[in-house]
Amino acid sequence: MEDTSRVPSAGDGQPNLAVRVRVAIRMQIPAGKRKEARSILASMIGRIRLEEGCLSCRLYQDAIGGQSLMFEEIWSDEKGFREHLRSDEFRNVLLVVEMASKPPEIHFDRIARSVGIGAIKDERKETAGPPDVNGLSA
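Now predict its structure.
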């Protein structure tokens, strides 16, 4: 997942405190439709990334079994996210969701704060042992 710990400043040197929106759509696509679903979603990623407020758009496939696809978007603010929900691109995402063999999991998460690798270092600094090559304790 993309590290969102480096929030762009609001222009005055202070971090931008806008709430980000993460869209996560997990769906199980039947084998006969999986290639088509991947192709449709992959073709839309570039266009969605160009939409105002889109920070990230990615497609993942379950490495074990391969039936599940996850389509993830991260939006810089509520405004861009809401405009996207009304867009033709999101309508196309919903058309792929309709290919699912089971009801999909759809989550719209509001993220007010995000931390990165520093949180791991902070939590693990009390553990014994030398740090590994990435500076994290074993």
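The chain has one domain: 20-124.
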